[in-house]
Amino acid sequence: MRSPSILLCAAAAIMIMPVLANSGAEMRVKADVAVVTVKPLPGGRRLVRLPALEFALLIEPQCAPDTQVDSISISVADTKTTLTAGDMDGQSEVVAKIAIPRRQVSPLAIEGFCQLGRNDESNQSEMLIEDAFTASISLRCAGEHNTVIAYASKALDLKLRCVHEEGETEAPPDQGAPSSSIAR
């Protein structure tokens, strides 16, 4: 009795897969690295409180010929933003910025980075933290007779930059200024 139900489920899955694979909606996503400046800290493992972070994403949406971009939604941590077709103004690519409030950013445990009184090679002045956050992006393409949604995720990287006394910026010790190379 189990064999017919298993075969029925397998046949249904095979029939659905081509529809999902050929939806005609897809997107390419690139993201800038968020940069945070940190003042030298006492030696050992330390928790660094991060500031609010801003990430810039370059999104290239593509819809099937009979549909057009209706909206793009981006979610990182508990922060969400949505761009409508009017926000994109018919552009083939769009730069979206999403700011994550400080209260949604956990302290970061670091060791051997930006230590007070150490000027040797083991005292790093920059540290890249890959996949610090993940952006979930959905593209909604709508036409006269159908609507299709495509999903993507993009890992977001974070760079810590040590700022010593002589090159000090105006940022407080636990805050930094984000930078963006995606400019439009």
Question: What does this protein structure show overall?
Answer:
β9 and β10 form a beta hairpin. It is elongated and about 65 Å long. The chain has two helices and ten strands; from the N terminus they run αββββββαββββ. The relative contact order is 0.27. It has one domain (24-167): Immunoglobulin-like. Mean pLDDT is 79; it is low at 11-21 and 167-180. By secondary structure, the chain is mostly beta strands. The N and C termini lie far apart (61 Å). The strands form three sheets. A five-stranded mixed sheet has the order 2-10-9-5-6. Strands 1-4-7 form a three-stranded antiparallel sheet, with no helix packed on it.
Give the key terms.
184 residues; mainly beta; Immunoglobulin-like; 2 helices; 13% helix; 46% strand
Which value, in Å, is the CA radius of gyration?
Answer: 22 Å
User: Biggest β-sheet: count, sense, barrel?
Assistant: 5 strands, mixed
DSSP helical segment count: 2
* CATH topology value: Immunoglobulin-like
Q: Please provide the count of β strands.
A: 10
Principal-axes geometry comes out as elongated
Topology:
Layout: H1 2-21, E1 26-31, E2 34-38, E3 46-48, E4 53-62, E5 67-76, E6 79-84, H2 85-88, E7 94-100, E8 108-110, E9 126-143, E10 147-162
